[in-house]
Write a structure and sequence with these properties.
alpha/beta; Aspartate Aminotransferase, domain 1; Aspartate Aminotransferase, domain 2; 2 domains; three-stranded antiparallel beta sheet; 13 helices; 14 strands; 43% helix; 15% strand; globular
Length: 381
């Protein structure tokens, strides 16, 4: 027998109470019972997003709400600014191309943070830009981008909105939507919300609704106007994933009980311990010190070590699934997730598995040093 540990930045582990809530007998989605569950989940999402704006729920992955931001906020040929320093910033660029938008491509190395000054320069040089896209927590690189300074720049432009991919940010790092004047913020269920994949949510500001009113790109299932109209009637425009939304309600209740500030603090502690453990055995962190999020810890694979073999051995021999690098960084970095339903001993177990794996495939280091370093972080908290 082998116990499995899922230590990826998505999908993430699901609490037993959330799983059990989804095993209840099916209910119809056009009933007062479901309406009550849906409306409470919507209000609790506002708590997590830290907003009084509309929050809309869709049955899709995070990519679905990324796409919804394009079709609801823009018209063919309009210009947007894409900031990107990882795979999911790249996805914004792919979506802009797919929908025939003009774009300014503000790209960085994957281990570099987006600079607000660069955004300001691009907006000054292109006054016709209607939207700025930024990834708060870049899953592929672990980089935490400075959303607030960028939002401050965008807020000065009357006809330009900021769209934030916080799919691995919400619940792990601070993202005060209203305080930072964020127009569109999105997340996915299989991340900090501690659910299986299949749900995504997006918050929409009044300024963003102004863009929606003049958008001419085609939309049907992903229509924010349809979703808003339906939520006003305490229902959904199309058949929702009933069990997932029941689970969402349970997960959000857990987050409320812990308290959002404490949830974020827990994620920071787990990230600190994971990084201290890796550095204690001579490993180098990928993301820069000024831009490290709490969702995932990417680490450079040591010289002479097969990064793909490392990930495979941890999974096959020790039952610990971590993530490898993506695109150009495949085999060059590995990623330890600590987003959502994680606590201290998940990190200790993962570091123990990492030490055994590294020792087995030929990396020389002081055995036990990663565990001591992580324990020191936890015991000092």
């Amino acid at each position: 027998m082998q116990k499995k540990y899922l230590m990826t930045p998505g999908p993430t582990p699901v609490p037993a109470d959330v799983l059990l809530s989804q095993a209840r007998p099916m209910i119809h989605h056009r009933t007062p019972e479901f309406s009550g569950i849906l409306m409470k989940a919507t209000e609790d999402l506002k708590y997590v997003f830290q907003t009084e704006n509309d929050v809309l729920i869709f049955a899709c992955s995070g990519t679905g709400v990324m796409e919804s931001a394009f079709v609801n906020c823009f018209s063919p040929g309009e210009k947007v600014l894409i900031t990107r320093n990882g795979k999911f910033g790249d996805r914004f660029l792919q979506l802009a191309k797919a929908y025939g938008l003009e774009y300014v491509d503000l790209s960085y190395e994957w281990n570099t943070v987006v600079q607000a000054a660069d955004v300001e320069t691009a907006l000054d040089e292109n006054p016709d830009i209607k939207g700025v896209f930024i990834t708060q927590s870049e899953t592929s690189s672990g980089v935490l981008n400075p959303v607030k300074p960028v939002a401050d720049v965008v807020a000065q432009k009357d006809d330009c909105i900021i769209i934030v991919d916080s799919i691995t940010g919400i619940g792990a790092v601070d993202c005060p939507t209203d305080e930072w004047k964020l127009d569109v913020v999105m997340t996915g269920s299989q991340k900090g919300l501690m659910l299986p994949p299949g749900l995504a949510a997006v918050s929409v500001s009044e300024k963003a609704w102004g863009r929606v009113a003049c958008s001419e790109l085609p939309k049907f299932y992903f229509s924010w106007e349809k979703a808003k109209k339906s939520i006003g009637k305490e229902t959904t425009p199309f058949t929702p994933p009933v069990s997932l939304i029941i689970g969402l309600g349970e997960a959000l209740s857990m987050i409320r009980e812990e308290g959002l500030e404490n949830v974020i603090r827990r994620h920071q502690l787990l990230a600190d311990a994971a990084r201290a453990g890796c550095e204690a055995i001579g490993l180098k962190l990928f993301a820069p010190p000024e831009g490290r999020g709490n969702a995932v810890t990417p680490v450079w694979v040591p010289d002479g070590i097969d990064g793909k073999a490392l990930v495979k051995t941890m999974s096959a021999k020790y039952g610990i699934t971590i993530a490898g690098g993506q695109d150009d960084y495949a085999g060059k970095i590995f990623r330890i997730g600590h987003l959502g339903y994680f606590d201290r001993f998940d990190i200790i177990t993962t570091l123990a598995g990492l030490e055994m794996t590294l020792a087995e495939i030929g990396y020389e280091f002081e055995r036990g040093a990663a565990l001591r370093a992580a324990e020191d972080v936890f015991m000092g908290a």
